[in-house]
Design goal:
Elements (H helix, E strand, L loop, with lengths): L8 H22 L10 H6 L3 H33 L8 H7 L6 H14 L6 H26 L3 H8 L4 H12 L1 H17 L2 H7 L6 H10 L3 H30 L4
Helix pairs in contact: 1-12, 3-6, 3-9, 5-10, 6-9, 6-10, 7-8, 9-12, 11-12
Length: 256
């Protein structure tokens, strides 16, 4: 254990057992039929399954709406938190973290109970509210971290050259904060598509999301088709990560 590389062994074992192995099992189940033979029918079935396609479309719609609302609310909040002139207390940032210390399921159950107490009809509106409540911190903090680490001399130099505050924001602050925006979008959009507990509790299962379809297939012992749906979700996540990661590299390389 004298070598530094040996200290990475526990993390390597963890990644193999709890990341690589589960992903491998998903792929294996997705590409096998009931008798264990290789097949693509589980994946192609998704494209002819009307229920799964409609649920996927609803999931994308809800995810887009949730992501946009989180971005519209989260960017100003992150900007205020990172601006020492607007936020003079470090305690303010902690207040946004506090809800994340409570289990997400407990927060969702408490939110559903509040809606029941005040007589709100559970539906899409309550679902979006719960989604924003749960995922807003995941939009705020990537943007906040980027803005906090941003070199303030760029904005000062632009102001010295005659740029107005709005021009400094549009041409300096906003472009340089894009990595945080892309990270926030990724951290909000994909979990929204694949979640199921929030939609179940905040709509009384009136609105199903893609995660619910996966859960129902697994609970019905339809492991192969459930794994195929999970595999499709993983492909979408991977492609989205690659696309947004490419944008991040372009920005870091100076191509704004």
């Amino acid at each position: 254990m004298g070598k530094r590389s040996n200290w990475a062994l526990p993390y390597f074992i963890f990644l193999v057992l709890f990341v690589a192995l589960p992903l491998l099992l998903i792929v294996l189940y997705a590409l096998r039929d009931g008798s264990g033979g290789f097949t693509l029918s589980n994946i192609t079935r998704f494209f002819s399954d009307g229920d799964a396609l409609s649920t996927f479309a609803v999931s994308i719609e809800v995810a887009i709406e949730n992501t946009l609302i989180c971005l519209l609310l989260g960017y100003p909040a992150a900007y205020i938190l990172a601006n020492k002139d607007l936020n003079k207390s470090a305690v303010t940032a902690i207040l946004f973290i506090l809800p994340m210390w409570v289990n997400a399921l407990m927060r969702t159950l408490a939110t559903a109970e509040l809606f029941n107490v005040f007589g709100f009809t559970l539906g899409k509106g309550t679902l979006i509210f719960g989604m924003v409540y749960d995922y807003l911190p995941f939009m705020i903090y990537p943007i906040y971290n980027v803005l906090l680490k941003m070199d303030k001399s760029y904005g000062e130099a632009a102001a010295d050259l005659g740029a107005t505050p709005s021009e400094v924001f549009r041409k300096i602050t906003l472009p340089l904060s894009k990595p945080g925006i892309f990270s926030g979008i990724l951290m909000v959009f994909m979990p929204t598509v694949s979640t199921f507990a929030i939609s179940e509790f905040l709509t009384n299962n009136k609105i199903k999301l893609f995660g619910t379809i996966i859960q129902e297939n697994i609970n019905s012992s339809m492991w192969n088709y459930g794994a195929a749906l999970s595999f499709i979700m993983l492909v979408i996540i991977g492609l989205t990560t690659i696309l947004l990661g490419g944008e991040d590299r372009e920005i870091e390389g100076g191509t704004l």
